[in-house]
Amino acid sequence: MAHQRIPNLGRKTAHGAVNRPKNELDRILTSQMSLMTRAQALASGVSEDQLYRRIRSGTWESPQPRVYAPAGMAYSPERILLAACLSVNHGAMAFGRSAAWLWSADRWHATPASLEIVVSRDQDPRLRGVIVHRFADVNLTEPSFRRGVPVTNPLRTAVDLGAVASPATVLAFIEDGRRAKLFRIPAVIAELERIARRGRDGAGVLRSVLDELNVLGSWPPSRLEAKALALFRSLGLPDPLREMVWGADGEYRLDFYWPRFGLVVEVDGWSFHSSDEARGRDLKRQNALVLAGLPPLRYTWRDIVRDQRRVRAELGAFQRQPDGLLRA
Asked: What is the sign, positive or negative, of the torsion defined by CA atoms of 32, 35, 41, 45?
């Protein structure tokens, strides 16, 4: 595999001008966060003796084996990960929690939970401050680049994350990635099935997360309904009408409807997210309910299962009146 480089035309000065690389070595440093491999340094004209003297004098430093950099520069997580990947050089990529952090739109935390990369099974590098994972099928995945670092693509990251992180972390990445349009859920399911056939670590955790979201279709409607009804009953609500036909031409179905209270609750399962057509139908129904004076409260299946405190608070906004009715 060719040396990993980040396309860049040069460094910007404080005044917005661009400093063009003066020579091959400067071009390499400019394109790789001021990092270079031993092979790159030698190919650019630096001799073995010059390399040794610069390290010995402290002009250069070696953050990882066979990787060099001008001394005294700060190391961001991205720069540490890139130095690790350059040290291995054969398809190494940021992996797991580091990959999820790189892809995350809000970057979850100021730094990744762990600095880790993945290499092929036949490699066994000894790196400083970076966890190295070894998998046989790394060479089957082309690296993506995120913030200058070679990284597993979002779909592969969704599977791999389960090998090193909790189901809650995997769930957060799935939801973050879907919102950021890094992937669609059907593509995640397809990647899961492709990887799972090879007994890949992490596949079981991702499968359990998708199962909890009911995107794999393994939970029957009766189970979904029972979860929601149990929550409603815990608030003292009587059982609602379910799957009620509604609309001038009976074109809509309401998940849960309390006619006496003027309360409609819609629980959006997988169908709400599965296609543009499904979303369009649900939004059309919602607009019709708003115009009829029945603005629905909408929850995802995860809200009902995992965020009951918020659901309780919102349903509790309908205060009980002396006549027993709920009013907004």
From this structure: positive
- The vertex-147 CA angle with 163 and 68, nearest 5°, equals 95
Write down the H helix ranges in 4-151. Answer: 24-31, 38-43, 48-57, 77-88, 96-103
- Cα separation, 63 vs 76, whole angstroms: 12
How far apart CA 41 and CA 52 sit, in angstroms, is 12
Per-position b or e across 169-202, b if 16+ CB within 10 A of its CB:
bbbbbbebbeeeebbebeebbebbeebeeeebeb
Please give the pLDDT value at position 274.
Answer: 52
pLDDT digits (tens, 9 = 90+) for 114-130: 899 999 888 889 999 99
CA-nearest of 13, 2, 29 to 142 is 2
State how far the Cα of 21 lies from the Cα of 30, in Å rounded to an integer.
7
Taking the C-alpha atoms of residue 135 and residue 96, their distance in angstroms, rounded to an integer, is 12
CB 127 within 8 A of CB 89: no
- Reported in sequence order, the residue ranges of the chain that DSSP labels E, i.e. its strands, are 11-12, 18-19, 36-37, 60-64, 67-70, 93-94, 116-120, 131-135, 144-146, 149-151, 241-246, 252-258, 263-268, 297-300, 319-320, 326-327
- At 278 the pLDDT is 66
Residues 6+ apart with CB under 8 A from 167: 205, 208, 209, 212
In this prediction the pTM is 0.69
196-218 confidence digits (pLDDT tens): 765 677 788 888 888 777 676 55
For 262: left if phi > 0, alpha if psi spans -120 to 50, otherwise beta; the answer is left
- Identify the pLDDT of residue 199: 62
CA distance 244 to 170: 36
CB 86 within 8 A of CB 29: no
Q: Please measure the distance between the N-terminal and C-terminal CA atoms of the chain and give it in whole angstroms.
A: 64
